[in-house]
Amino acid sequence: MSVTDDLNPDTKKQDELLHIAHAQSFDLTNVIPVRPPMDYSSPAAFATSLSRRWKSIWTRRFVLALLAGQVVSLCITCTNVTTTELVNRNWSLPTTQTFFLYFSIFAIYTPYTIYQYGFKGWGNMILRDGWKYFILACFDVEGNFLVVKAYQYTDLLSCMLLDAWAIPVCMFVSWLYMRPRYHWTQILGVFICVAGLGLLVASDELTDKDWTALDRAKGDGFMIAGATLYGLCECQEIGISSVLPDYLPVANATEEFFVRKRPLYEVVGQLGMWGTLINGIQAAGLEHEAMKLATWNRMTIGILVAYTAAMFILYTVAPMLYRLASSTYYNLSLLTSDFWGLLFGLFLYHYRPYWLYFIAYIVVIAGLITYFWHSTPEEQGESVPSAPSYVNKRGAPALPPSPILA
User: Do residues 318 and 330 touch, judged by C-beta distance below 8 A?
Assistant: First the structure.
């Protein structure tokens, strides 16, 4: 008789349950993939390992992140073109212009959030977590405002270089909040992308697309401040883990939140709601006189609709890109926007393409691939979006009654 047979039935049953629980706890969907190692033992082994590493990069998630990055880059180009057209038609109201963006995402995403959470759940979410989204909206609104103001005072060269300041800011704040481990190949990817930006700047200088700075010091200050707010805003949208509550006197706000931890419709809807409020007050205070002098006709309204549509797509796709990759990858992807701007310029402004533009675009794309040469998108952070624990989401089982109120 075996030792197992000597065990009583209860012990055997418990042992079987432990084996089953152990097998069920091993979930392959939660395993983070790693790149195949490089083999430097011989030229043939190196070539084989290099081929395996190259093929391992092109996963479905990476391809989606790469494509999403180009979508947001194209949207940024559309907003630049439409803003230029509005200014050329005597319509220069930067704060009012973004008001329609915030109102549109509020009008689309907030009703759906209420549909999912119910009015009571939505109200509880605002009472408990609304202050976090208010801070996020402040960063976003003022970042947009400062960057637009910077273009009025400094030159194109300073704007392009200083706007890239959002990249190191975002990486640093992400490190403070979530402690990601940056591999040296990711730093190399950043430098390659910035080198591509340098080629774009050189192209603009050689083709004489720059303009005279009215007040370089003021404009550079606006751009640095705006880019810093962008970096802070994007890092918060990824998900802060109990950081803000340590610095702000607010209790019971220790949960991780925003895009990686909360549903997209909640985050974007709250950004739209608070952004509409902040932006509307700011526009009424700063641009109420300019609104009377601006040209309002069918053409300007049509261009304004196109601008709002491009920004709506950007604000919808960007959180998805944060989940697929990271906010740093989002900022790096935006460096290709000048190339898309060239394509718009060929048809709208009859630009003559300069050969450095095409090389710069290839260099930036190479940097985006290098960024994930060693690390994988899955290693950038855990994405488990779910409704707040205090909300009874539509279709979910009802929450148990509170023992205090029972």
Answer: yes
Q: Which two tokens stand for residue 74?
A: 């194209």
Give residue 105's pLDDT: 95
Average pLDDT score, the chain? 78
> Cα–Cα distance between 107 and 254 in angstroms, integer?
29
What pLDDT is attached to residue 3?
A: 42
What are the phi and psi torsion angles at 401 (to 5°)? -65, 145
Q: Is the pLDDT of residue 384 over 70?
A: yes
Instruction: List the one residue out of 277, 380, 370 whose CA is nearest residue 322.
Output: 380
Q: How many CB atoms lie within 10 A of CB 15?
A: 12
**Would you say residue 212 has pLDDT above 80?**
no
Per residue in 278-289, pLDDT tens?
A: 999 999 998 989
Contact between 160 and 201 (Cβ < 8 Å)? yes
Is residue 305 very low, low, confident or very high in pLDDT (cuts 50, 70, 90)? very high
Q: Which residue do the tokens 């439409």 mark?
A: 82
245-274: average pLDDT? 62
Other beta carbons less than 10 A from residue 228's beta carbon: 18
> Residue 210 has what pLDDT?
53
pLDDT at 372: 94
Given a cut of 50, whether residue 20 has pLDDT beyond it is no
| The three-state (H, E, C) secondary structure of the chain, written as one string | CCHHHHCCHHHHHHHHHHHHHHHHHCCHHHCCCCCCCCCCCCHHHHHHHHHHHHHHHCCHHHHHHHHHHHHHHHHHHHHHHHHHHHHHCCCCCHHHHHHHHHHHHHHHHHHHHHHHHHHHHHHHHHHHHHHHHHHHHHHHHHHHHHHHHHHHHCCHHHHHHHHCCHHHHHHHHHHHHHCCCCCHHHHHHHHHHHHHHHHHHHHHHHCCCCCCCCCHHHHHHHHHHHHHHHHHHHHHHHCCCCCHHHHCCCCCCCCCCCCCCCCHHHHHHHHHHHHHHHHHHHHHHHCHHHHHHCCCCHHHHHHHHHHHHHHHHHHHHHHHHHHHCCHHHHHHHHHHHHHHHHHHHHHHCCCCCCHHHHHHHHHHHHHHHHHCCCCCHHHHCCCCCCCCCCCCCCCCCCCCCCCCCC
Integer Rg of the chain from CA: 25
